[in-house]
Amino acid sequence: MESRQLASKWLKTEALLSDARAAAHIPATRIYNSSNLHQMLNQYGFVVIKPVVGGGGAGVIKVTKEGATYRHTYMSRTRSFNDFDALMRSLASVKRKRAYLIQRGIQLAAVGGRPIDYRVKVVKKNGKWVFRSMVGRVARKGLFVTNLCKGGSMLTAAQGIGRSLSSGRVRSKKSEMRQLTRMCTSILEGKYPGIGQLGFDYGIDRSGRIWIFEVNTRPQ
């Protein structure tokens, strides 16, 4: 049976939000529109907007609000605005006419000042899910997206956790990511039978809390 592809980030997020245990690890996420963006910037001060369909860090934009100043960062270019309408006009030209979602921004633990996140891959073999890999991805200097195709560099998960948090937390954080992966895989498979491989993107914030950023059904 061919592995089922689920391109929409929103559908997969919605499936995980239906379970309180997984939902506790998902940053607040909403469909992109001006009122949602305005509300979330006022609440969190930092959000990430990304295409509902797409991968490799393409089209991901960081948006912040400090005092009366709004900023957006796309790739390595940051622009500032004095009012929300000017921000919205600029975002419209950057993001093109794709459907986007807004996710609360997380201050990630970093390696040498560069944010790091983690990709955990699982595949179904002979009716059982097995772990294929668990790696850390460090953003290229000057970027906030960690994708390897955007110049990010790869570490083992143990190196990443050890260098961004502490070596004493490696075992517990790896174990927690594995538990989360098993739980979320089971939720997604219950909702979408026929999936055969999954790639989970996790972030660990500066206090050590693990966040689920997205799940890919065609992990690269």
From TrEMBL:
Pfam families noted in UniProt: ATPgrasp_YheCD
State the superkingdom: Bacteria
This protein is called YheC/YheD family protein
Q: In which organism is this protein found?
A: Paenibacillus profundus
